What does this fold into?
Amino acid sequence: MRAFNEWLNRGEDFIVGFALALATIATFVEVIARYVFSASVGTGGELAVFSIIWAAMIGAAVAARSGVHIGVDVLVKRLPAALAKGMVLLSLLVGAIFTFVVTLLGIQLVQLSFETGQVTNELLIPRWPLYASVPLGMALMTYHLLQQFVAHLRKPAEDVVAGVGAEEAHAAQAEAETVGEHIEVRQT
It folds into this structure.
């Protein structure tokens, strides 16, 4: 299972990075074409939007994997540890149910688009690959939320409460250190 999760994590990270790079390149090429050559490639805008949508949908799953999901920490931290753990577990379970329902609805959207032969306006490619980002992203989110649920279920209540908000603080600290490293590099 560990090997599968590592493979999945690398795949998610690659898709997000590739999609963002593709969106950046498409936008850059379109801007250069318009302002330097007074012409449009004609596909840059749509390609950038599609790439950003894929990055956002898979990126949401990456956020769920990291434990950085929407939550109200203030209330949970004020509750007794056992009740706080229950609230965290409930929020993860409700989130997983919600993302599972959106996965099912996303599958229906992809099927409808495939069956009706919808195509994009600029690229003139089928729309269903774009729409496939919804069920795939939401299925991955469901998986990661359930992973978080199981991990929290196994932890003592005090550890769950101590971890509430810790993911965001850790992410902020890591970003601050990265920014600090870039500043130090630029000063030399």
Observations:
- The radius of gyration is 21 Å.
- Residues 2-37 form the longest helix (36 residues).
- Residues 2-187 form one domain.
- The chain has one domain: 2-187.
